[in-house]
Amino acid sequence: MKVHPGRLKWIAARMGWIIGALVLVLLIWGGVRYRQQSRVSRVYIQIEEDAQGNAFVDSNDVRDILVKTFGHFVEGQTLEKIDVGAIESALEQDLFVEEADVYVDAMANVNISIRQRLPILRVMDVEDETYYLDAQGRQIPFSTKYTARVLVVTGDIGLYNSSFMELEDHRLRHSFILAEAILEDPLLSKQIEQIHINRLGDALLVPKVGNHKIYFGAPLERTVEKLDELKIFYREAMPYEGWEKYKLLNLAFEGQIVAKKR
Question: Are the C-beta atoms of 223 and 177 separated by less than 8 Å?
């Protein structure tokens, strides 16, 4: 059977394409396999710090977590053994870590970025338990590395419950809502350093500047109005009367502040 020359050229071209494709696949497979067998060159760890430049976790903590979880650190391991998802999950199990991002770059370096959980409150309850709360009301353990400079809540606030924000009568919920209102205000967030809850559930505020106390009363009664009245007093009365003249500012009365002098 005689094959037309044009047909032979077509067959040769097709065979060439097939062979070329196979060679390309083999090259890609070889490159991937070579990269998988490459070893991690270096590990770069970046940890987001708080406003004061401090962090609850450091690079040694990250190393310890990975060694404890996987039995070894990632440096020197082959890339085929590096599971970035598993590393992220292991790091995010730590109570101080909000989010972990891990990737391997073109130079076979493993890059680990940590966003830590940032406290907004330090709580010291009647049982002498000390811990932090983040902006979502989640508990953060007290750290021995450093003490975060945040608003402090003390007194008869009850024990921590992960569902405290859903419990209407929980005093920690009342304290947290009052603290949020204080922290949202540029003036009061810098001036108020402590909220103390007495046995009746009323709040007493302790300022940073001035040798006076502020009787707030029920934390959730007229919260915004009381804080507005306090700001007006600070702006209009204190500059003229002086910060050391008053012993107690009482915000419990609607529409006025009862100031007790020394």
Answer: yes
